[in-house]
Amino acid sequence: MEVGFLGLGIMGKAMAMNLLKNGFKVTVWNRTLAKCEELVEFGATIGDTPAAVVKKCNITVAILSDPSAALSVVFDKDGVLEQIGSGKGYIDMSTVDDDTSSKIHKAVTAKGGSFLEAPVSGSKKPAEDGQLVILAAGDEALYEEAIPAFDVLGKKSFFLGHVGNGAKMKLVVNMIMGSMMNAFSEGLVLAERSGLNPHALLDVLDLGGIANPMFRLKGPTMIQNNYSPAFPLKHQQKDMRLALALGDENAVSMPAAAAANEAFKKARSMELGDLDFSAVHEIVKIHKSSS
Ligand SMILES: NC(=O)C1=CN([C@@H]2O[C@H](COP(=O)(O)OP(=O)(O)OC[C@H]3O[C@@H](n4cnc5c(N)ncnc54)[C@H](OP(=O)(O)O)[C@@H]3O)[C@@H](O)[C@H]2O)C=CC1
Ligand SMILES: O=CCCC(=O)O
């Protein structure tokens, strides 16, 4: 199976590499073209533009930073729309809002192509290990066609119905995750400032009803102030912003998410946006020490 792949950031690089290692022919493109070189060593071919990739491949996957990047790669000069058409499928795995996804869906289908949104749960390591959770929605025939690739990329794929449902599911999940990360950061700081051993807190949490893989994975590195990026904080803040907008549209009051968003925004203003989202821990530390 030949797959086009647009976007070789933290997630895209790991996912494209997995496809190559599992025998897929992959043609890659990235805005910063130099990032394609490592994939070429593993057998990838480079496409000069998104349009060139779509021209060559019947299925093209994208995973890009945010709505503006997702739209740019489709609508701008040399973009996906220039070559999409009958018999060609476009799968956007970026985390975006349903409005962005719908715009891409309309444009792709107006040219005769098929479209699937398929954002993912799981971060750098699950992407490397092919253990993502895929939240697909849109063209069901394209979903079926993509299953061999999804089976390599993920441990479970969901087909959630019409376009927008995948985007919304992903935003709800990440809204919960962002609020949890803030509560966790506050707990770590409170434990430490009140004289408790934060490692003991991690042990206690891990044996109770709120044990979860995120606390288990991020807790030890947060205690060491190590925020090497797996999921960049700027993307988590984008997801909080988009989830809050979804809350606005549906008149859902989300004070915990709004407070978490403020913390992520503050972290971005302190230039922590390229670090892991767990760096929001630093904001809690500052607030506590200034009070
Ligand atoms: N990291 C994670 O744990 C997870 C991330 N996600 C989501 O997946 C998406 C990608 O995340 P991640 O890989 O971490 O992000 P990165 O920041 O590592 O990579 C972003 C990618 O988008 C490209 N890009 C950014 N702006 C543009 C633009 N205007 N035009 C074309 N390309 C652009 C970048 O190109 P360039 O290299 O040139 O900058 C790069 O390939 C995001 O939507 C994120 O929310 C979902 C699940 C987990
Ligand atoms: O969007 C990023 C999700 C990160 C995760 O699920 O661990």
UniProtKB/TrEMBL annotation:
Domain 3-hydroxyisobutyrate dehydrogenase-like NAD-binding: from-to ranges: 164-281
InterPro entries: 3-OH-isobutyrate_DH-rel_CS, 6-PGluconate_DH-like_C_sf, 6PGD_dom2, 6PGDH_NADP-bd, HIBADH-like_NADP-bd, HIBADH-related, HIBADH-related_NP60_sf, NAD(P)-bd_dom_sf
Catalytic residue positions: 170
Boundaries of every 6-phosphogluconate dehydrogenase NADP-binding domain copy: 2-161
Source species of the chain: Tripterygium wilfordii
Top-level taxon of the source organism: Eukaryota
The protein's name: Glyoxylate/succinic semialdehyde reductase 1
The protein's role, per its UniProt record: Catalyzes the NADPH-dependent reduction of glyoxylate to glycolate as well as succinic semialdehyde (SSA) to gamma-hydroxybutyrate in vitro. May function in redox homeostasis and play a role in oxidative stress tolerance by detoxifying glyoxylate and SSA generated in glycolate metabolism and GABA metabolism, respectively.
Assigned GO CC terms: cytosol
Any one Pfam family match given in the protein's UniProt record, by short name: NAD_binding_2
Chemical reaction(s) catalysed: glycolate + NADP(+) = glyoxylate + NADPH + H(+); 4-hydroxybutanoate + NADP(+) = succinate semialdehyde + NADPH + H(+)
Keywords, alphabetical: NAD, NADP, Oxidoreductase, Stress response
GO MF annotations, alphabetized: glyoxylate reductase (NADPH) activity; NAD binding; NADP binding
Protein family membership: Belongs to the HIBADH-related family. NP60 subfamily.
